[in-house]
Amino acid sequence: MSDSVAAPSRRRRVTPQSLLQGSGVLWFTIAAAGQWLFTYYILGAYIPRTASGDYSRWNETGLIEGYVQGDWLGNLGFISHVLLAALVSAAGVIQLLPMIRRKFPAFHRWTGRAYISVAVFLAIGGILLIWVRGTRLNDWAALGTTIDGLLILVTATFTLRHAMARRIDLHRRWAMRLFVVVSGVWFIRVAYMAWAIASGGAGMRRTLDGPTDILVPYLAFLVPLIVLEVYQKARDSRSAPFKLGVAGLILVCGGITALGLFGAWMMMWSPNILI
Fold it and tell me: How far apart are CA 17 and CA 32, in angstroms?
């Protein structure tokens, strides 16, 4: 959706296309701010606890047990996965900025390669942590995260292939899909908190096996992917009503994202930050 950031700055009349692009810019701005907040949370929560050498304090930051006594390899894999996730969250936003692509193409190419490499590493590592180490809340949620990891591998492959073949438009479309699935864990937190605030926690249980708890890990990446595809179709379409309808949809998604970010920051992230 960030392609719309590249729209010329000169004054022009409001059209369905410009409204659609504007809605995309707004959502991306909200999401970008949320990605940076997530990065700050990871660094602020895990680096001080790791630097102190008291690794068991990783378990204070969430429901998943990160530190396991005596499992040095698994502990190393866990903290590497977490800290690299912070890098990917920050880098993904930078990669989608049109200004970076235009003014610093070499930087965009090299950081893109690094981004794809780390994303693939995280996808494979995450699947191993879930099913080999057992770092998961429940099997249903783990399956959703695993599907998201497999989608990362697929979208990363097509993003790289189209970039190497200089099929730039296709490359950008696949890069946005990659951004969405790489952000799957972030979307889970945002969606979970948005639903908790809006519904009062309907379908959620403390044991995290309620209907909502099971559905969110799937919907958190499937819904954004579907919305992205609809947005892409609307950008290519000549139908003004279609463009306006999708612009409205994106605005609603932006509001939901903002609500979920507020909840995640207030209840999940900020309480665990030590710096």
Answer: 22
pLDDT at 33 over 90: yes
Residue 2's H or E segment, with its range, is: none
Structure tokens at 206: 């403390």
The pTM of the full predicted model, rounded to 2 decimals, is: 0.87
Q: What does the CA dihedral 231, 115, 90, 234 come to, rounded to 10 degrees?
A: -10
Unique residue bearing structure tokens 């410009």:
18
**Beta carbons of 97 and 52 less than 8 angstroms apart:** no
Contact 17, 31 (CB under 8 A): no
Q: Taking the C-alpha atoms of 158, 161, 167 and 172 in order, what is their torsion angle to the nearest 10 degrees?
A: 40
Question: Is the CA virtual torsion 27, 32, 38, 41 positive or negative?
Answer: negative
What value does the CA radius of gyration of the chain take, rounded to a whole number of Å? 19
Q: Alpha-carbon distance 35 to 224, whole Å?
A: 15
Tell me if 204 sits within 8 A of 196, measured CB to CB.
yes
Ranges of each domain in the chain = 25-272
Per-residue confidence (pLDDT) for residue 63, from 0 to 100: 60
Could you identify the residue written with the tokens 């193409």? 105
- Residues 111, 90 contacting (CB under 8 angstroms): no
Any residues with CB less than 8 A from the CB of 217 and at least 6 apart, and which?
140, 141, 143, 144, 145, 148, 188
